[in-house]
């Protein structure tokens, strides 16, 4: 790798994107921004371009890209502006890029994250949906292309930190030799962990997005409220660490201090702890195997007083059960689960459906779409589109 890491941030205007730029800003001698991308917030992308002066910027829409190009020209910056998915894939796979932060939310992030893996980049993966949808294909591509895949999701980054170094480096050592018996993902339980069940039917998007510990984008906030997020993370862990579903457990830990754990056969349980601040996993992955300052406050253990753990109530959180079932049902079911969830969450945020309708609809759509083999990324994307159409139809939505 070059002395200075040249970084593309996919989804630069989002929660993970901005946290990444905050860490990058602290280490100008180590990191340089090569490209920044955004879907809609062109003013915010302009501000970021003026600060980081990237080689490329990408906007989803061609008209926004045109506007941004004019603004940058007026500011006498040589940043080239691209648009659409082709633009995203180009800056993810560009020869001069070392590291790609994949922080676009949802299925929309899959093609560019995949392009980065195919090009053998150091891929910092926040976009968990990419692995949920295309786990087998994605991991095989990482291997074939010699890419380095580093998890950003706090739970997976925690597990990664608790693994033996040979496993972190993916040296070819048989798993059995490491004596890992279980991966334990922790979950905060979200804002509705203790709400009386009868009230769940009436919760609003604002309540669902008011996460007790983390400040995140809207989609993942709703996923945390339904605990679909933890379900997606179980699937993500299965692919990332090559562990069978039976050896991946979920524990509710409302304080969000223990970010996840690895249990070994001698009875040891290693945990990674820290503030609920995404700059820790981001800095860990950016600098790995070194460590750098992330601007995160120290953990004050005496002030925390107590850490508690409980098993999740699957009646309250049916989405968690649906996601765990999908792991046994095969790769196509995971694509269907993810696509149906994205449509339902968007409909809930737009106040078109109630909270309980999310899990109910996903279960119906899973029953409706038959299993099939998924050999290529195009197969995955086609099933994703088909599921979106079926889900919209079921909800009576036209757009
Ligand atoms: P966000 O909504 O805050 O930001 C999403 C970013 O993706 C924005 O920059 C947006 O412009 C871009 N984007 C959205 N749709 C797009 C599209 N169709 N095409 C191109 N760009 C698009 O989301 P976030 O909370 O930062 O989450 C990003 C990813 O990271 C998600 O997959 C999420 O599950 C994962 N993640 C987030 C957190 C967190 O703390 N926010 C923690 C763990 C994992
Ligand atoms: Mg997480």
Task: Please give a handful of descriptors for the protein shown.
single chain; 399 residues; alpha/beta; Rossmann fold; Rna Polymerase Sigma Factor, Chain: A; 3 domains; seven-stranded parallel sheet; four-stranded mixed sheet; 11 strands; 15% strand; binds nicotinamide-adenine-dinucleotide; binds magnesium ion
Q: Structural class of the helix and strand makeup?
A: alpha/beta
Low-confidence stretches: none
Main sheet record: 7 strands, parallel
What is the overall shape? Answer: globular
Bound molecules: nicotinamide-adenine-dinucleotide, magnesium ion
And the CATH topology of the largest domain? Rossmann fold
CATH superfamily of the largest domain: NAD(P)-binding Rossmann-like Domain
Mean pLDDT: 96
CATH architecture of the largest domain, please?
Answer: 3-Layer(aba) Sandwich
Radius of gyration: 20 Å
The N- and C-terminal alpha carbons lie at a distance of 45 Å
Could you explain how this protein is built, in words?
With 399 residues, the chain is α/β, with parallel strands linked by helices. The chain folds into 3 domains: 5-151, Rossmann fold (3-Layer(aba) Sandwich), CATH 3.40.50; 162-303, no CATH class; 330-395, Rna Polymerase Sigma Factor, Chain: A, CATH 1.10.1740.10. It has 17 helices and 11 strands. The chain has helices at residues 15-25, 42-52, 62-74, 84-93, 110-118, 128-145, 154-162, 165-168, 205-209, 218-226, 228-241, 279-287, 301-304, 318-329, 331-349, 356-368, 377-395; strands spanning 5-10, 31-38, 56-59, 80-83, 99-102, 122-125, 148-151, 180-187, 248-252, 258-264, 269-273. The protein has a 7-stranded parallel beta sheet, with helices on both faces. Strands 9-8-10-11 form a 4-stranded mixed beta sheet, covered by helices on one side. A hairpin with a 4-residue loop joins β10 and β11. The longest helix has 19 residues, at 331-349. The model has no long low-confidence stretch (mean pLDDT 96). Residues 11-17, 38-39, 60, 103-105, 108, 126-129, 153, 214, 216-217, 220, 278 line the site of nicotinamide-adenine-dinucleotide (NAD).
């Amino acid at each position: 790798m070059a002395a200075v890491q040249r970084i593309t941030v996919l989804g630069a205007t989002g929660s993970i994107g901005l946290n990444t730029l905050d860490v990058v800003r602290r280490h100008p001698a180590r990191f340089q921004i090569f490209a920044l991308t955004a879907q809609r917030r062109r003013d915010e992308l302009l501000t970021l371009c003026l600060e980081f002066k990237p080689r490329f910027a990408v906007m989803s829409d061609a008209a926004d890209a045109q506007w941004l190009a004019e603004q940058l020209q007026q500011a006498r910056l040589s940043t080239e502006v691209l648009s659409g998915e082709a633009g995203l894939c180009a800056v993810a796979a560009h020869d001069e890029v070392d590291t790609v932060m994949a922080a676009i939310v949802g299925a929309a992030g899959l093609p560019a994250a995949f392009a980065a893996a195919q090009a053998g980049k150091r891929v910092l993966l926040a976009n968990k949906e990419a692995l949920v949808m295309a786990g087998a294909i994605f991991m095989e591509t990482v291997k074939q292309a010699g890419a380095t895949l580093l998890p950003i999701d706090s739970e997976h980054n925690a597990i990664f930190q608790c693994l033996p170094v040979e496993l972190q480096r993916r040296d070819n050592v048989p798993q059995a030799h490491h004596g890992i018996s279980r991966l334990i993902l922790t979950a905060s339980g979200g804002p509705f962990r203790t709400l009386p069940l009868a009230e769940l039917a009436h919760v609003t998007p604002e309540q669902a997005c008011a996460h007790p510990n983390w400040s995140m984008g809207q989609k993942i906030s709703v996923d945390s409220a339904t605990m679909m997020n933890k379900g997606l993370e179980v699937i993500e862990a299965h692919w990332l660490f090559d562990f069978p579903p039976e050896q991946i457990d979920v524990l509710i830990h409302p304080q969000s201090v223990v970010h996840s754990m690895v249990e070994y056969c001698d009875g040891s349980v290693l945990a990674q702890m820290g503030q609920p601040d995404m700059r820790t996993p981001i800095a860990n992955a950016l600098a790995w195997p070194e460590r750098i300052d992330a601007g995160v406050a120290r953990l004050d253990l005496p002030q925390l007083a107590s850490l508690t753990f409980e098993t999740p109530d699957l009646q309250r959180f049916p989405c968690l059960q649906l996601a765990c079932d999908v792991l046994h049902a095969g790769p196509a079911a995971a694509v269907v689960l993810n696509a149906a969830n994205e449509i339902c969450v968007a409909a809930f945020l737009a106040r078109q459906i109630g909270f309980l309708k999310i899990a109910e609809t996903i279960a119906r759509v899973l029953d409706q779409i038959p299993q099939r083999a998924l050999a290529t990324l195009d197969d995955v994307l086609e099933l994703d589109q088909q599921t979106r159409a079926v889900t919209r139809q079921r909800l009576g939505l036209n757009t």
